[in-house]
Amino acid sequence: MNKKVVLIADDDFDYLFITKFRLETAGFETLSASSQKQAEEIILAGGFDACVFDLMMENDDSGFVLAYKVKKLYPQVPVIITTNVTSETGYSFDNSTSWVKADLYLEKGVQSENIAEELKKLLKT
Amino acid sequence: MEKLNILVVDDEPGIRAGVKRILEKFEVDYPFMDEPIGFNVVEAETGEIAIDFLKNEKFDIVLLDNKLPGIQGINVLEFINQNAIDSKVVMITSYASLELAVKATKDGAIDFVPKPFTPQELRSSVENITKQLFLKKMTTKLNQAGKQIRFQFLSLLSHELKAPVNAVEAYLKMIKEKKMGVNINDYIPIIDRSLDRLNAMKNMILDLLDFTKVESGQTAKNIQDVDLVESLKLCIATVKPLAIQKEIKISLCSENPVIYKIDQTDIEIVFNNLLSNAIKYNKDGGSVDCCIKEEDKIITVVIKDTGIGISKEDQKKLFNDFVRIKNEFTQNISGSGLGLSIVKKILLNYNAEIKLESEINLGTKVIITLQK
């Protein structure tokens, strides 16, 4: 079976490393981008089966913008958005989900530890 | 125009009609108001009707006669008091006794207008209450704005502190679960990264302490004559190790003392922040040129670097709290995003100006102007 390729975008060097490590040890191949700009270039080129985007990169809504672009070009590719921003710190995803079609939001920290399993679930459906 | 709702409770139709006529033509103006406040008057001929109105509608002011056919005015006042209805009550009554006045005041009436009253007496009572209500409303509004700003700050803060905590936590778990095998040497890179993140967090906490000091304005300032050239020299010595690592040359053009009345700690925070920015965002082998000049009681401090520069768009947001300009050049530089915000706040206390001239890839020039 071919390995599934995941595009990861995060401007935090450590998260990029951690996410890459988590996914590769779970049997994925990865493409990484350390900025929204880099990710946009990879999105145009294609060649991935799923995406994991950090929310805040150059812009506060970088992850949303990337998710939108992915879904426009490849509607079947699942997108996970990860962030340190949470509802308890006064940020709500509820208003944005209507136009941003991400499949899952994960808080960095405990929630994102199971990112590989979550991706596998999304890729099966 | 904003209108306050007034309920007039009196069994005499003449009084009710009079009050309505006087107040509906009346406007209260106040220097701080954008526009004058007018009045809507609703009439109730008995206490019972008044209570019905009060249950269903909000009245800012109630003009209340005591002597009514059914329940008395004082009972209406009790009802308002017990149900915590937010209305200001003025008693309008002809047989005002001291006993009644005491009881009414105890139950929250804020004014007495004895009958018969002149239009002017009525207007001046209503005017005073209107001004009170207006000020109360403005205070609430300002408090809410203050809370909003604090909340935004705390949200940003928790976000900024969570990022390193989560990263270090993930690394520690990788080590605990031996995700990279049993050789400890394989973990050195992620241990080093964890230490870097913790160090950055420590610096951020130090910046936060500076920030709260400046923000609260509570620390006693020790304003005295300070030689800015000497201070700058001191700060240059502090950042020297950082500069040596990146092979950056720092020069200072001024020799003669330039004296300015300022708190020594304040000016050191300003210089340290600007110098460390000039080094952190510089290129290896670059330079930082500093100059302090005094001319006609105006002191200019210039700190110029040969760094990565800041785009016009980013310059606009640079002085806000927790702003870090994110791009491919800055992503490996750690910072709290508070430095320039602190600098700006301190300088504001001295009515000093700070401005930037910057070009991408060529460098940034920070200019501070102080009035002697």
Task: Describe this protein's structure.
The complex is a heterodimer of chains A (125) and B (372). Chain A contains four helices and five strands; from the N terminus they run E-H-E-H-E-H-E-E-H. By secondary structure, chain A is an alpha/beta fold. Chain A has one domain: Rossmann fold (3-Layer(aba) Sandwich). Chain A has a five-stranded parallel beta sheet, sandwiched between helices. Chain A is globular, with a radius of gyration of 13 Å. The model of chain A is unreliable at 94-98 (pLDDT under 50). Chain B has two domains: 3-143, Response regulator (Rossmann fold), CATH 3.40.50; 222-372, Histidine kinase-like ATPase, C-terminal domain (Heat Shock Protein 90), CATH 3.30.565. Chain B has ten helices and twelve strands. The longest helix of chain B has 58 residues, at 119-176. The radius of gyration of chain B is 33 Å and the shape is elongated. The two termini of chain B are 48 Å apart. Chain A binds chain B through residues 11-15, 17-18, 21, 25, 34-35, 37, 57-58, 84-85, 89-91, 108-109, 113, and chain B through 151-152, 154-155, 158-159, 162-163, 165-167, 169-171, 173-174, 179, 190, 193, 197, 326-328, 331-332.
